[in-house]
Automatic annotation (TrEMBL):
This is WLM domain-containing protein. It holds the Pfam family WLM. It comes from the Eukaryota. SUPFAM superfamilies: Ubiquitin-like (SSF54236). InterPro entries: Ubiquitin-like_domsf, WLM_dom.
Length: 347
């Protein structure tokens, strides 16, 4: 019998596995470069690595990506853009060479200072900017600040709230815990006040609104900044825990320590251990932080469903919450003028 050649069956190719590294190629001044990244890297990681590998700071970087994407530059409008989406696109880095950047920082060898003239120090390169921190601060922050316009000197209240929002310690703690607050506003002293106690702050719907008692009861002064900042630490903890349980107080203590440690004005150190965590005392007799995290119902900003009538008999149903608060403040001040400060009824 004649030999018959039996064709061998092709060996199936192994199934590709998930690559451990993602190579991204780009050109810079006509030179091709390839950098490796993890599969989940973003354009922010590309910018950081170019600074580390090529010595080009983020503020000098500009990327031309074709087709469709066009020009991208830090801080990116979409910092979550994955590098994996750029693999089939042409990426060109538009930036000066490191030698050109260093030449700009050196004094010119042609233009020399005349004898006796003061020497000119070479310009120092711009400090590296942490773009990831910039993006986090834009996300984990107070997205709106609003004083009560119907109370005296609202601009001063606005400056007070802005100082709290820009406090280095508060910003650092909000980034760490990823706290995002819709509205930071002030509390009307006429609200949440009885003969026995005063409420210093409120957190509504776990960060939808935080209210702080900035003013004294007579509206003519403002309370101590550190007391209000401590109240804000307390209210931020309500973003996570509504009840005043052990978990809540542990988080409050951590936030207060972080705020003090990152406060460069105080050198990053607390003066005493008593600065932190005393759930039974707000610093002034008869005052307490709040009654816990409030959610739903009449506590949602924009609706004052719990009111049926104002003090002078005018129906409050249908009024906005701010209008009802303003009416209550006007009624209270009117009564104070009629009765006099000594309660004798003299005007």
């Amino acid at each position: 019998m004649a030999d018959v050649d039996v064709p061998s069956m092709p060996t199936p190719a192994p199934s590709p596995s998930q690559p451990e590294h993602l190579p991204l190629s780009f050109t810079h001044h006509g030179t091709a470069h390839t950098l490796e990244f993890s599969p989940d890297s973003t354009v922010v990681d590309l910018s950081i690595k170019i600074h580390a590998e090529l010595g080009i700071p983020a503020e000098n970087q500009k990327f031309m990506i074709t087709p469709k994407l066009g020009i991208l530059k830090p801080p990116f409008s979409d910092p979550s853009l994955r590098l994996s989406t750029l693999l089939n696109k042409k990426v060109v880095l538009l930036a000066p060479l490191p030698s050109e950047l260093s030449a700009l920082s050196k004094p010119s060898s042609i233009a020399r200072s005349p004898p006796g003239a003061p020497s000119i120090k070479p310009a120092t390169p711009a400090r590296y900017r942490d773009w990831r921190k910039v993006q986090d601060e834009a996300t984990y922050t107070f997205h709106s600040i609003l004083p009560l316009s119907y109370l005296p000197n609202p601009e001063r209240s606005k400056r007070f709230l802005e100082r709290l929002a820009n406090d280095a310690g508060i910003k650092a703690s909000m980034r760490k815990h990823k706290f995002s607050v819709g509205l930071l506003t002030e509390m009307n002293p006429a609200e949440h006040t009885t003969h026995e106690s005063r409420t210093l702050g409120l957190n509504r719907n776990r960060g939808e609104v935080i209210e702080l008692r900035l003013r004294t009861d007579s509206y003519d002064g403002y309370r101590d900044y550190k007391v209000i900042r401590k109240t804000l630490c307390h209210e931020l903890a309500h973003n996570v825990f509504g009840e005043h349980d052990r978990n809540f107080w542990d988080l409050t203590k951590d936030i207060e320590k972080e705020v003090e440690a990152n406060d460069w004005r105080s050198g990053g150190h607390a003066l005493t251990n008593e600065e932190f965590y005393n759930p039974n005392d707000s610093g002034i007799e008869g005052e307490h932080m709040d009654g816990g995290g409030w959610t739903g119902g009449e506590f949602v900003l924009g609706a004052f469903s719990g009111a049926t009538s104002s003090d002078n008999g005018i129906p409050a149903q249908g009024l906005s919450r701010r209008d009802a608060m303003a009416k209550a403040a006007e009624d209270r001040m009117k009564k104070q003028r009629e009765t006099g400060r000594d309660g004798s009824g003299a005007s």
